[in-house]
């Protein structure tokens, strides 16, 4: 197995304060990984770092053989303007961006791909529905359809199932597993530990510093979960600056 | 007097009325869709700010060569672009948002413009720059307006899709492409371009009216983006025609007449539009079986 994304002593944060501290490890090609941890543990920050939206404060993120523009990213709080006069097929068609670019025309087979994507997420017949009439779950289905059309090798999902009903979650999980079977690399931030155990073979347990990273059954050991819960969320305004000469001290045991 | 005499003759008989109508119609076609995007991006007041921002450039052109079209247009365009760029840069590299930085720069720009005009001109000149003279459009001005409208429409067609994406889901656009920021700037340039096109006819302050009022009115009638753009153009054309007619018969200023007709259309739409106040209130609270 080869790594598609490798993190090398990665520190990400805001205003010099680390939100993800000294993270070492790799996401294997085709792996299905859950990122778990308490609020403020740096999960979303890590995804932003991987998409390139946030520059590392220290260390490196290596993308093997893919550019950051080829990563499909579904943020936790989409900045979608629900009042904009667009319909579902407009929103989902944005997924053609990579293949059709800025000016390329949407072609006949694209139309079919769009139909299939909407069908796959259970939104058939919603093509012309204005987006301001969608429920939260329907919007999330539409965004998954857009990820489908993006046809990305790496897919990042930030809390994709928050405030979504059971049936929708079931449908979307099936889609995630389908991506896994297609050997796409999927990384999802999640809170539902039971679901992680059921669906995700790999887990990264994060509490600003990596607590554990590896097979889900070992990572989600009660001892590790307890350790994660003890994480302090507050920034220490007077914490000393990191001495770069001594960068090889590690706080966690990242596998 | 028959109908023809009332509605057609003023334009057939007088060259200045004819040119005023042609100029205002071209402006309506060009500015309407830009206004729709401004409205949908919640930047309606940005148009107003930019209209103030072009003043010092126009004034500088005026100082150099009097009330000639080309220097004032180029100067206005340059000043508007500088303000848009500076505001964009400040919001990009500091924590200040674009609305605040834009306000700061346009106020500086406005004061500078008024000062420049006062260096040489009289109050009459200032009124001309601020409120325009649609009845004094000559052939050069018409050619200029036509060129500006052409560039604006072609430009908007080219950036239509990225602009659409940028409005709908900016985070997504950022994740797949670097086009977001340039597209925003090109769009602001189109706004400035339409304002300098309009200020010969309507002046810097009223030029925004032909951009925003038809767009704002159109939203009360239709749901789709293309429909809004088309309707905004239609409202602009109707406002131009009836505004000039009213100005002709009542002997009132033409620029304000055009904008007031557009304002009237807005108010009527607000109340009687399909998605306006009255219709959404009196609509029986019935619903379909599924």
Keywords summarizing the entry:
heterodimer, A: 255 residues, alpha/beta, Rossmann fold, six-stranded mixed sheet, three-stranded antiparallel sheet, 9 helices, 9 strands, 32% helix, globular, disordered C terminus, B: 290 residues, mainly alpha, ABC transporter involved in vitamin B12 uptake, BtuC
User: If you consult CATH, what is the topology of chain B?
Assistant: ABC transporter involved in vitamin B12 uptake, BtuC
Helix fraction of chain A by DSSP (H/I, runs of at least 4):
25-40%
Largest sheet of chain B: none
Note the total helix count of chain B.
14
Low-confidence stretches of chain B: none
**Radius of gyration of chain A, rounded?**
19 Å
Oligomer: heterodimer
CATH superfamily caption of the domain at 1-66 and 155-160 and 192-255 in chain A:
P-loop containing nucleotide triphosphate hydrolases
Number of strands of chain A: 9
Shape of chain A: globular
Order of helices and strands of chain A: EEEHEEHHHHEHEHEEHH
Structural class of chain B: mainly alpha
Mean of all residue-level pLDDT scores of chain A: 86
Please count the beta strands of chain B (DSSP E, at least 2 residues each): 0
Task: List the domain count of chain B as a whole number.
Answer: 1
| Structural classification of chain A | alpha/beta
CATH class of the domain at 1-66 and 155-160 and 192-255 in chain A: Alpha Beta
CATH architectural designation of chain B: Orthogonal Bundle
Q: Would you identify the CATH architecture of the domain at 1-66 and 155-160 and 192-255 in chain A? A: 3-Layer(aba) Sandwich
């Amino acid at each position: 197995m080869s790594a598609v994304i490798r993190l090398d002593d990665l520190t990400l944060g805001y205003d010099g304060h680390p939100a993800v501290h000294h993270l070492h490890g790799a996401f294997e090609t085709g792996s299905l990984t859950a990122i778990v941890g308490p609020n403020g543990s740096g999960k979303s920050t890590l995804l932003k770092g991987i998409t390139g939206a946030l520059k590392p404060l220290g260390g490196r993120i290596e993308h093997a053989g893919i550019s950051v523009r080829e990563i499909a990213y579904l943020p936790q709080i989409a900045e979608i303007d629900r009042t904009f006069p667009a319909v579902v097929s407009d929103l989902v068609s944005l997924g053609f961006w990579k293949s059709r670019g800025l000016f390329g025309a949407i072609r006949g087979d694209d139309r079919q791909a769009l139909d299939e994507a909407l069908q796959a997420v259970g939104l058939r017949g919603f093509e012309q529905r204005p987006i301001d009439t969608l429920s939260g779950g329907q919007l999330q289905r539409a965004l998954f359809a857009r990820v489908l059309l993006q046809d990305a090798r790496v897919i990042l999902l930030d809390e994709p199932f928050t405030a979504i009903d059971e049936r929708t979650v079931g449908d979307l999980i099936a889609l995630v597993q389908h991506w896994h079977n297609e050997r796409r690399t999927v990384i999802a931030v999640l809170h539902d530990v039971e679901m992680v155990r059921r669906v995700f073979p790999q887990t990264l347990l994060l509490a600003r510093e990596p607590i554990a990273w590896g097979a889900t059954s070992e990572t989600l050991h009660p001892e590790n979960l307890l350790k994660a819960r003890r994480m302090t969320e507050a920034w220490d305004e007077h914490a000393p600056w990191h001495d770069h000469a001594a960068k090889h001290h590690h706080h966690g045991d990242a596998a | 007097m028959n109908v023809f005499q009332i509605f057609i003759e003023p334009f057939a008989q007088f060259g200045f009325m004819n040119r005023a109508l042609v100029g205002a119609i071209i402006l309506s076609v060009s500015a309407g869709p830009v206004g729709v995007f401004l409205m949908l991006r919640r930047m309606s007041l940005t148009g107003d700010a930019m209209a103030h921002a072009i003043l010092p450039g126009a004034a500088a052109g005026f100082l150099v060569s009097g009330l000639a079209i080309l220097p004032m247009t180029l100067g206005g365009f340059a000043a508007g672009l500088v303000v848009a760029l500076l505001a964009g840069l400040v919001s990009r590299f500091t924590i200040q948002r674009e609305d605040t930085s834009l306000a700061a720069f346009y106020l500086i720009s406005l004061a500078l413009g008024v000062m420049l005009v006062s260096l040489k001109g009289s109050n009459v000149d200032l009124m001309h720059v601020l409120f325009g003279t649609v009845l004094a459009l000559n052939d050069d001005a018409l050619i200029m307006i036509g060129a500006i409208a052409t560039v604006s429409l072609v430009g908007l067609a080219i950036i239509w899709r990225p602009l659409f994406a940028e409005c709908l889901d900016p985070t997504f656009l950022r994740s797949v492409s670097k086009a977001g920021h340039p597209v925003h700037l090109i769009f602001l340039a189109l706004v400035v371009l339409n304002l300098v096109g309009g200020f010969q006819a309507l002046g810097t302050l009223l030029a925004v009216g032909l951009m925003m009022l038809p767009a704002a009115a159109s939203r009360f009638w239709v749901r789709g983006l293309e429909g809004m753009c088309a309707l905004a153009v239609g409202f602009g054309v109707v406002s131009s025609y009836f505004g000039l007619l009213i100005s002709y018969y009542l002997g009132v200023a033409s620029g304000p007449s055009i904008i007031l007709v557009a304002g009237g259309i807005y108010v009527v739409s607000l109340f009687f539009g399909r998605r306006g106040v009255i219709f959404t209130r009196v609509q029986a609270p019935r619903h379909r079986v599924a």
